[in-house]
């Protein structure tokens, strides 16, 4: 940075993030890029000098939210101008920007700048240009490589967990999905760059990283793929936990499965979407695997790591899905037993092959199937959480809980865990005896090490009742 770009104090930036964790990462990076221009974060959009909506295009509802938010922003900006305030800049970033840039400019004149997920490293330059010539827009056709090279390695984080994007884009072309169009082809960042970023995070007190990629287990930026990367990161002092998401069943290779059995830092929780349990639907989705090969894969993963908790994505009402196909999905779920899951009604996305397929399923049928699917998935989640009662789990404490004296952390299986305990444990991993398994969290007691005897002992009186 040169002297000329040093911060002008006091400009406020509001970023609203929609969609996946990769957008969360991108939003943080946008804040990093804009900080040297003098932008500090605010939680109040009405006070912001610059509002960024980092958008998601995956389902229709997600995309439509942007336009209603822009309506609110238009009013905020008008109120501010009326009150004599400085002009509020409005940026639409992310996947809707990429897919519908021109439509956004047409539908929402309040927007100054549209910038796709591969071009946000250009924000400082773009903002400078738009403040000179309003209404200018830059298209987002840049290689991801250029973006990552342009981003400052130094990130500012204040938590004990962090996201780290290692791979972007997708070459799989599932017939329902916009990602290959909005995020482009698969690109993996070089291992050395990721290691440098991870070291920087660890130096700021981050104990757990979640490696992000649309097809994270297709990572190919270094030897031995994602398994090799996980090994390198596990060796970083202070970095005790590694997670990754989202994976494709086709890319779950031997090395990665084996790494789950060998690397203590690799957490026993895997998000491995299957989308459907029907071979006919899987074929129409272009998933390139069957229900049986998915089940076989789960068996191999569990052989390497018997306590692996599994998470999944499901789509109901894909074109051509019959009651029997849906039943196949329920059967697959019964077989796997998921610790958690996300389920969606099929949403017709313009430009994707499935949107033009015959046999589109009626909305009421989708609703009804979704309800049955969720009932089963909720029961499995509840059973998984309940099965932890009496076990001792290592919990990484992240922040104070909602009630005084309470702290909140995560189990290895990504469950939220509440305990009564001191705030000094935030940033530490400590054993907890689980006393209660709820739908969305666990409750437990700290097992504090007695420094004299170094024998574990009960942390609170509640343990006696457990
Ligand atoms: N309709 C419904 N769900 C979708 N997903 C992706 N595209 C669609 C769509 N068109 C879901 C998939 C994917 C998750 C991120 O979003 O389940 O795994
Ligand atoms: Fe979309 Fe399929 Fe690629 Fe996942 S693997 S991002 S669902 S196209």
How would you portray this structure in words?
This protein has 466 residues and is an alpha/beta fold. The protein is 35% helix and 22% strand. The chain contains 14 helices and 19 strands. Strands 2-1-3-4-5 form a 5-stranded parallel β-sheet, with helices on both faces. The protein has a 5-stranded mixed beta barrel with strand order 14-15-16-18-17. The chain has a 3-stranded parallel β-sheet with strand order 6-9-10, sandwiched between helices. Helix 8 packs parallel to helix 9 (254-262). The longest helix has 24 residues, at 363-386. The radius of gyration is 23 Å and the shape is globular. The N and C termini lie far apart (58 Å). The protein binds 5'-deoxyadenosine (5AD) and iron/sulfur cluster. Residues 170, 172-174, 177, 179-180, 214-215, 248 line the site of iron/sulfur cluster.
């Amino acid at each position: 940075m040169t002297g000329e770009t040093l911060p002008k104090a006091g400009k406020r930036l509001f970023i609203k993030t929609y969609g996946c964790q990769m957008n969360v990462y991108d939003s943080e990076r946008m804040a990093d890029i804009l900080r040297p221009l003098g932008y500090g974060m605010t939680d109040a959009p009405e006070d912001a000098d610059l509002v960024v909506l980092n958008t998601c295009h995956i389902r229709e509802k997600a995309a439509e939210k942007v336009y209603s938010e822009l309506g609110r922003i238009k009013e905020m900006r008008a109120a501010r101008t009326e009150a004599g305030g400085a002009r509020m800049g409005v940026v639409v970033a992310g996947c809707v920007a990429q897919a519908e840039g021109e439509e956004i400019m047409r539908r929402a004149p309040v927007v100054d700048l549209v910038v796709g997920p591969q071009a946000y490293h250009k924000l400082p330059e773009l903002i400078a240009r738009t403040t000179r010539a309003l209404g200018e827009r830059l298209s987002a056709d840049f290689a991801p490589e250029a973006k990552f090279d342009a981003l400052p390695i130094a990130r500012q984080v204040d938590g004990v967990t962090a996201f780290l994007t290692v791979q972007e884009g997708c070459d799989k072309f599932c017939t329902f999905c916009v990602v290959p169009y909005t995020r482009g082809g698969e690109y993996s960042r070089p291992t050395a760059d990721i290691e440098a970023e991870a070291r920087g995070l660890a130096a700021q007190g981050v104990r757990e990283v979640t490696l992000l990629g649309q097809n994270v287990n297709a990572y190919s930026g270094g030897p031995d793929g994602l398994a090799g990367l996980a090994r390198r990161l596990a060796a970083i002092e202070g970095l005790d936990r590694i997670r990754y998401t989202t994976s494709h069943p086709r890319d779950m290779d031997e090395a990665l499965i084996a790494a789950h059995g060998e690397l203590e830092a690799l957490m026993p929780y895997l998000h491995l979407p299957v989308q459907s349990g029907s071979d006919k639907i899987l074929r129409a989705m272009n998933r390139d695997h069957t229900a049986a090969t998915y089940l076989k894969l789960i068996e191999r993963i569990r052989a390497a790591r018997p306590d692996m908790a599994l998470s999944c994505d499901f789509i109901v009402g894909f074109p051509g899905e019959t009651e029997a196909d849906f039943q196949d999905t329920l059967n697959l779920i019964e077989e796997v037993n998921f610790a958690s899951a996300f389920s969606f009604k099929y949403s017709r996305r313009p430009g994707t092959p499935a949107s033009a397929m015959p046999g589109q399923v009626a909305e009421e049928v989708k609703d009804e199937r979704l309800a049955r699917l969720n009932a089963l998935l909720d029961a499995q989640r509840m059973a998984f959480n309940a099965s932890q009662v009496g076990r001792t789990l290592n919990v990484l404490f992240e922040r104070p809980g909602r009630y005084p004296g309470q702290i909140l952390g995560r189990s290895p299986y990504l469950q939220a865990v509440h305990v009564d305990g001191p705030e000094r444990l935030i940033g530490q991993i400590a054993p907890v005896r689980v006393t209660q398994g709820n739908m969305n969290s666990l409750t437990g007691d700290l097992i504090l090490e007695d420094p004299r005897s170094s024998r574990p002992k009960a942390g609170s009186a509640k343990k006696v009742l457990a």
